[in-house]
Amino acid sequence: MRKENKALIIEEITNILSSYNTVYVADISGLTVEKSNALRKLCFKKGVKLKMVKNTFLKKAMEQCETDYSEMYPVLHGTSAIMVSETGNAPARIIKDFRGKNSIPAIKAAYIEQCVYVGDLVDMLSSLKSREELIGDIVSLLQSPARNVISALQSGGGKLAGIVKTLSEK
Predict the structure, then answer these.
(1) 144 and 116 both lie in a single domain
(2) pTM
(3) Residues 92 and 141 in one domain
(4) 94 with 72, same domain?
(5) 3-state SS track over the chain
(6) How confident is the model at residue 154 (pLDDT cuts 50, 70, 90)?
(7) Residues 46 and 108 in one domain
């Protein structure tokens, strides 16, 4: 491969890494063509971008990014694919759903919101809540006391009216 072509590939990978805040490095070797195509379709449906990469190109692209991916360098061997997404747990959920009882595909490492996870931590990563889910939980927790006060005032007002009505009838 010519040097210009290599530079273009590295630049493309760098642009992908810079565009997303969630990067998974996965090992999808051992999948048949049919299964790898099914995985690609599932990723496309869920908004996750899947791309096979050479480890040397990926490492050079990671070095060119502003983000520090150095903790992920030791896992860059063998067959690697990157899965990028806006949601931190989406690639892990796809892998968990796809592989079922098998161990393929496997997560080598993941970079999620400035944290690096190394190893096949599918269960833990898939149970992580996304940023939007966390914001929703916080909003519901903040609204809960206000709802309780409003419902107590409304139910108390009904009881008070009932007592006044009963007293006036006597």
Answers:
(1) no
(2) 0.73
(3) no
(4) yes
(5) CCHHHHHHHHHHHHHHHHHCCEEEEEECCCCCHHHHHHHHHHHHHHCCEEEEECHHHHHHHHHHCCCCCHHHHHHCCCCEEEEEECCCCHHHHHHHHHHCCCCCCEEEEEEECCEEEECCCHHHHHHCCCHHHHHHHHHHHHHHHHHHHHHHHHHHHHHHHHHHHHHHHC
(6) low
(7) yes
